[in-house]
Specification:
The complex is a heterodimer of chains A (about 900) and B (about 160).
Chain A: H1 2-9, H2 29-33, E1 56-57, H3 61-68, H4 70-123, H5 134-161, H6 165-202, H7 205-227, E2 230-236, E3 241-245, H8 253-256, H9 261-264, E4 267-268, H10 270-283, E5 287-295, E6 299-311, E7 317-326, H11 328-393, H12 399-429, E8 438-440, H13 442-455, E9 461-467, E10 475-477, H14 479-495, E11 500-509, H15 513-530, E12 535-545, H16 567-573, H17 579-589, E13 593-599, E14 603-614, H18 617-628, H19 636-641, E15 644-647, E16 654-657, E17 670-673, H20 704-707, H21 711-714, H22 732-744, H23 747-775, E18 780-783, H24 787-799, E19 804-807, H25 810-819, E20 824-828, H26 836-849, H27 853-857, H28 865-872, E21 880-884, H29 889-897, E22 902-905, H30 910-920
Chain B: H1 2-21, H2 27-35, H3 43-67, H4 74-91, H5 94-108, H6 112-145
Helix pairs in contact in B: 1-6, 3-4, 3-6, 4-5, 5-6
Classes of the chains: A alpha+beta (about 900), B mainly alpha (about 160).
């Protein structure tokens, strides 16, 4: 039944052959020969098959059991009844026969009696009649009468032949004959009787047949049971086996009978089954249970066990009947199904979860994209505003106007910074941030950053730069990004520090453990390969301050976007909360780590460690040599090995217009003069502080030194005072005047003072620019198809003091480049005839190959006569700046991929143009 | 006389501000104005004139292209609108620029109805702007003629 149900359930699955419950290859040889699991032939041949009984039973106790159990006894009673019934039937038949015979005999005897009577009458014997008795008299009379009547009827016959002998003879003969016949009949009856008796004997045959039938039925039963995958058994009250069917083959009779499960088997499930049986025995209710056995004997098998209590005639429990069916496969399948269903559910749940996540991610991406686009859209006009303000600041303004303008510029810068932050962040997050590997000097960078910070410093803070001696002069890395990080951290430090020091400390450290762990192998290989030319160095950079510090509980969320240590801080100090997030992301992008340690009201230290590639150490020593005899060197060597810079607060710091020299983000037009003893571009510093601080770093006007752009114009090496002579004396008195005025004034005063300064420095700048122009006027080519854009750009260029040539499309650009040499190309991306990207590719191809073959192939008409001219030209890389309406990551990627150096987003503003020219025109 | 100049100046300032506030112009126009100096006193007017000529030409181009019912060269329209977008962005014609962006989108999706509708709007918008700027330049001229200085307008 169970088996059937199971097969129904697994119908869709492959119906497999049910294997034998017990393994085939166990059991003793002796057991085996009786083990006729599957007799050959079909059921019809059952009679011929000798079915050995596999039953092991205690023969002495079985009858007892049978007698004492209900089933046994009732079965036996049935048999007996049936047998009795058959016997009765036979007996009844025989009795009837006997009755018949008896009757026949009685008849015969009656006849005989009659004959004898008749004979008596013939002999005429006197009858003894009691005389005295009246009744007898009466009886006699009656008899008389009767006899009379009888005699009377025969009297005549007798009378007739009475006299003759012949008659008597005849009479005797006939009597004799009758006797004979009678005897004969008797004999025949006797014969019949004996025959009857014989048949009686043969009546025992049905019993035998019955026995045979019984045997056959039993055989059939055995056959069925033998093939059935079940174990059956009977156990007594103590759960000792009295009987078992289909036992495990290797167990012998004596191993099982009289023993309990626990005694026979060992392992899991045995105890359970034993308990279950006992429970059934106690409760007296048949029940089923699935039990998994794990025994040494047959491993792990699951059995469906049915146990029922057995009662004797008196209604007392005497044991249990036990039936077990192996359902291991079914259980396994069922479990598999359950597992599958569970897996399915889990997968579905995960899928929906995933969908949700995807949805959220998409939403986030869209939001980010939106933010980036929006930021960009805001940035373009804003930079216009700021740029215009800057241009405005170069014109003649009264004090009030200038003050307003400065506020406008600084707030504009702030917003620009914020938008740049957002764009940077989305760039890093979307993975399109490209890192560049350029050689740079860490000392210069630190100095420059501090210098810039000092320029916008409005507090009495000392800025310090400290670079360990073992830091290489030159390393390779993405200097722009590193500068960005430093600037960010420094401006943070300054923001949260009211007095004391802020500084940067650089030192070489051994490879940090977080890298060593996961990149040990790769790195060593690299070292081996590049050992001669290039090695990696890890530089640890601390940006420390003596500021308000950060409470410990705020540290974890410090690097999260839009998070600041507390809302109070955000209100008090402003800021977007993006700076640190960007720093962290950038540092991680470059394979480093940014950490922070801080104590409240003692200060914070932000530390980032980054790997850099280093050139050969030869370079270093070369630089050293160069440095050693620097007497009449340019200003550069000063930076190369200088390990310590300090920017002390000069009471009433002087702001000056530094001109276009600084390419940094923050208020690039301002530079603070802080070096105590130096004259910079003729500005005099506090002469009282004139102790020889040769270690001190001096601030030059607007970082010209770094850019080394206008060396020729002023050539101000701070070490040699004679260079200040360069016609700056005229400012002397004015500057000292403003110094003193600013000393006495607050911030507002500083603004006022600036106007004068600006005028002078502006004049100076113009002068410098004319000088530059005279020496080498840069040639700029604008490739743009939109007349209005051309007009605007041209006008801006004019403002910046440049003129430029115009090409209306890529082909014209190529022709122009072919015929004349340019220092910079501003290239629109989207143009008719030949777009900016393709044109750039062709120009780059020309630079590489020295011919315009690629362009000619592309269908650009280049006159051959000019080719010769071309070949003479130096094949320096021509800076090509893209002008694009869309600065989103992909577009800029495309620009870079096509060989462009940078890009300006449209609409072009004065500020953008100026930055670009600063970067690419030397 | 001074009162007239002051009046004109105030009028000019208000009018300029209204143009910004109503979204006709954006900061790029301010940028243009900064580029105007002694060397090129009519710079803005020149650029703007060029722009309106450009507008006229491009719009008629697009109108012609969109007139070819059933056989509209959306690529042609697209390149024209790209040009117009660049120009309007450069002069700070904010509304025209915004419409150009929408028109470009319609064009990219080949939405004929949208294109036609947008183009009509662009036409209206640029003409309005032209009229307004004309007014503004007239005011400027009046100020100059009255001997006044064109005031700086902070937006």
């Amino acid at each position: 039944m169970v088996c059937e149900m199971e097969t129904d359930q697994i119908e869709e699955m492959d119906v497999e052959v049910l294997s034998s419950m017990w393994p085939e290859d166990v059991g003793t040889e002796a057991d085996k020969q009786f083990n006729v699991e599957k007799p050959a032939g079909d059921l019809d041949t059952l009679k011929e098959v000798t079915i050995e009984t596999r039953t092991i039973a205690d023969m002495t106790r079985l009858p007892n059991l049978l007698n004492s159990t209900h089933q046994g006894s009732s079965q036996l009673t049935n048999l007996v009844k049936q047998w009795e019934y058959m016997q009765d039937n036979a007996v009844r038949l025989l009795k009837e026969e006997l009755k018949n015979l008896d009757r026949q005999r009685e008849e015969a005897e009656a006849k005989e009696l009659k004959i004898i009577e008749e004979y008596k009458f013939e002999s005429n014997e006197p009858e003894n009649v009691p005389v005295l008795d009246e009744t007898s008299d009466l009886f006699r009379r009656f008899r008389q009468k009767k006899r009379d009547a009888l005699v009377d009827s025969k009297k005549i016959e007798i009378y007739e032949e009475f006299d003759t002998v012949a008659y008597w003879k005849q009479k005797a003969l006939s009597l004799e004959k009758m006797l004979e016949a009678s005897t004969e009949r008797e004999r025949r009856l006797m014969e019949k009787l004996s025959e009857s008796l014989k048949t009686m004997e043969s009546q025992s045959a049905p019993v035998q047949e019955l026995t045979q039938n019984l045997k056959r039925a039993e055989g059939f039963l055995h056959f069925i049971l033998q093939n059935a995958p079940i174990v059956m058994g009977h156990q007594d009250k103590d759960l000792r086996y009295l009987f078992i069917y289909n036992k495990y083959p290797s167990l012998r009779e004596q191993d099982i009978l009289g023993k309990t499960d626990v005694e026979i088997f060992h392992g899991g499930g045995v105890k359970e089954s034993e308990d279950f049986k006992r429970e059934v025995l106690e409760k007296g209710k048949a029940s089923k249970r699935e039990i998994t056995f794990t025994t040494d004997l047959f491993g792990s098998k699951t059995f469906l066990i049915y146990v029922e209590p057995v009662y004797n005639k008196a209604g007392e429990k005497i044991g249990i009947n036990y039936m077990g069916m192996e359902v291991t496969d079914q259980v396994v399948k069922r479990e598999k199904m359950a597992k599958l269903r569970e897996d399915n559910a889990v997968r579905k749940a995960m899928e929906s979860e995933l969908n949700k996540t995807i949805h959220i991610t998409e939403e986030t991406m869209r939001a980010k994209q939106m933010l980036a686009t929006m930021s960009h859209e805001i940035r373009s006009p804003l930079s216009g505003v700021v740029g215009m303000a800057e241009i405005l600041s170069t014109t003649k303004l009264d004090k009030e106007q200038r003050q307003l303008l400065n506020v406008m510029i600084s707030s504009g810068d702030l917003v620009l910074q914020l938008i740049n932050d957002i764009l940077d962040l989305s760039k890093v997050e979307s993975g399109v941030m490209r890192l560049e590997a350029t050689k740079f000097r860490p000392r210069e960078v630190v100095k420059h950053v501090l210098q810039t910070a000092a320029a916008s410093l409005k507090k009495s803070l000392t800025l310090e730069g400290n670079i360990a001696d073992d830091v290489p002069i030159e390393v390779v890395g993405d200097v722009l990004r590193i500068r960005q990080i430093l600037t960010n951290l420094i401006s943070n430090a300054i923001k949260f520090t009211h007095e004391g020091n802020v500084g940067i400390k650089l030192q070489v450290i051994s490879e940090p453990s977080f890298v060593r762990d996961n990149a040990l192998n790769a790195d060593t290989e690299e070292h081996e390969q590049n050992g001669l030319t290039e090695t990696s160095v890890w530089i640890c950079c601390d940006v420390w301050d003596t500021g308000i510090g950060i409470p410990e509980n705020a540290l974890p969320c410090l690097f999260k976007k839009y998070m600041q240590a507390s809302a109070d801080h955000a209100r008090k100090y402003g800021g977007t909360g993006l700076g640190l997030a960007i720093c962290k992301q950038l540092v991680e992008l470059m394979g480093g780590q940014l950490t922070v340690t801080s104590r409240v009201s003692e200060g914070s230290t932000f530390t980032f460690i980054l790997p850099y590639k280093v050139g050969r150490s030869d370079d270093y020593s070369d630089d050293q040599d160069e440095f050693s005899d620097m007497a009449d060197q340019q200003s550069e060597p000063d930076d190369t090995a200088e390990g310590y810079f300090q920017f002390k607060p000069l009471l009433g710091s002087i702001y000056s217009n530094g001109g276009p020299g600084i390419s940094n983000d923050f208020l690039p037009h301002k530079v603070m003069l802080t070096s105590p003893i130096k004259l910079i571009n003729g500005f005099v510093a506090d002469p009282s502080n004139n102790t020889g601080q040769s270690e001190m770093l001096q601030l030059e006007n607007g970082g010209y030194m770094d850019e080394s752009k206008l060396e020729t114009s002023s050539g101000h090496c701070p070490e040699s005072a004679h260079q200040y002579e360069n016609g700056n004396g005229r400012c002397f008195s004015k500057e000292s005047e403003s110094c003193s005025s600013s000393q006495a004034s607050s911030e507002g005063g500083t603004l006022e003072m600036e106007s004068e300064l600006t005028v002078s420095s502006h004049r100076e700048e113009e002068k410098a620019e004319t000088e530059v122009k005279e020496t080498s006027k840069p040639k700029i080519l604008l490739v743009e198809d939109n007349k209005i854009n051309i007009m605007v750009a041209k006008s801006m260029m004019k403002q910046l003091g440049h003129t430029m040539d115009i090409a209306n499309n890529g082909v014209e650009a190529i022709t122009a480049i072919n015929s004349s040499s340019y220092d910079l190309v501003l290239m629109d991306v989207c143009m008719p005839v030949l777009d900016g990207l393709k044109a750039t590719r062709l120009i780059r191809s020309y630079e590489e190959t020295g011919n315009w073959n690629a362009a000619i192939e592309a269908g650009v008409d280049i006159s051959t006569s000019e080719n010769e001219q071309v070949c003479m030209r130096p094949t320096n890389r021509l800076p090509i700046i893209a002008m694009t309406a869309n600065t989103l990551a992909e577009s800029s990627e495309e620009c870079y991929a096509n060989g462009m150096d940078s890009f300006i987003s449209k609409p072009v503003t004065l500020q953008k143009l100026r930055e670009c020219l600063q970067q690419y025109l030397h | 006389m001074d009162t007239l100049i002051a009046q004109l100046q105030r009028q000019f300032r208000d009018y300029t501000i209204s143009l910004y506030h109503q979204g006709f112009l954006d900061d790029q126009f301010t940028e243009l104005k900064k580029l105007q100096d002694e060397c090129s006193p009519d710079f803005v007017a020149e650029v703007v004139t060029l722009f309106f000529e450009d507008c006229e030409k491009l719009i008629s181009n697009m109108a012609r292209a969109l007139d070819q019912t059933g056989n509209v060269d959306f690529k042609l329209v697209g390149s024209s609108v790209h040009q117009l977008k660049g120009s309007s962005s450069s002069v700070g014609a904010k509304r025209v620029k915004g419409l150009c962006i929408t028109l470009k989108e319609c064009c990219d999706t080949q939405n004929y109805e949208g294109c036609v509708r947008c183009l009509q709007q662009v036409d209206i918008e640029y003409k309005t702007l032209k009229a307004k700027l004309q007014d503004l330049f007239n005011l400027e001229q009046q100020i100059v003629q009255a001997g006044g200085r064109i005031p700086q307008v902070d937006i």
